[in-house]
Amino acid sequence: MSDDEKGNVQPEHKLVLRPVVGLTENLPTSDLEQITVQAIRTHRRLRDLAEARQDQWHAIEARDPSAKSARPARIAYVTAMIEMHAQQTVLSTLLDVLGYIPSVPED
Predict the structure, then answer these.
(1) CB 70, CB 54: distance < 8 Å
(2) Of the residues 20, 52, 58, 66, which has the fewest C-beta atoms closer than 10 A?
(3) CATH, domain range 28-98
């Protein structure tokens, strides 16, 4: 992704998952909205998991900064963040295809 002079990400460089576009572009809006709502809920769950993994990692490091037991917790956090960001890309693509952000109540 590239930025303009003001640091804004240029939309033409936005990551779009073409397979997601292809699978969803001809769906009825109601079906696409249902899929998008599920993706939002999945993203929220993954975000919460990543935050919990980060808290676990930091708690271990706070007790003992040199603890070797912090390494698995850090790996769990990084893995959770990767999964969350991958889902964010799916969600972003779905929102682009849908054209609006559907209302999704908090769980």
Answers:
(1) no
(2) 66
(3) 1.10.287.160
Determine what percent of the chain is predicted with pLDDT higher than 70.
Answer: 89
Q: Is-contact 102 33, C-beta < 8 A?
A: yes
How many CB atoms neighbour CB 95 within 10 A? 15
Give the whole-angstrom CA distance, residue 32 versus residue 96: 11
pLDDT tens-place string over residues 7-52: 554 556 778 899 999 999 899 999 999 999 999 999 999 999 999 9
At 103, list the tokens. Answer: 């209302």
- What is the token pair recorded at 66? 């040199």
Q: Are 102 and 37 in contact (CB under 8 A)?
A: yes
